[in-house]
Amino acid sequence: MQLAIADAKLKAESIAKPLGVKITGVIKVYKTGRYDVDRDGVPDYLDSHSGAYDAPQTIFSKFEVEDKDVEEYITIVFEIGKG
Description:
Elements lengths: L1 H18 L1 E18 L29 E15 L1
Antiparallel strand pairs: 1-2
């Protein structure tokens, strides 16, 4: 998150400079995110398992480890003023 904030500030400064304004503060910061499909490209609700492998029954029998891609977006609204 720190890298995203630093990148946003750098981009905002590169836009502000040619306009003859400076960043004077931060008005708002918010983060949004969402889960994507599995790494195999198949949405969770379409996954099916054959059940051909009969694993020993344990309390973890119903758990499966899956890789998930997660995206988060950070939006920063900067305040600008004449420099």
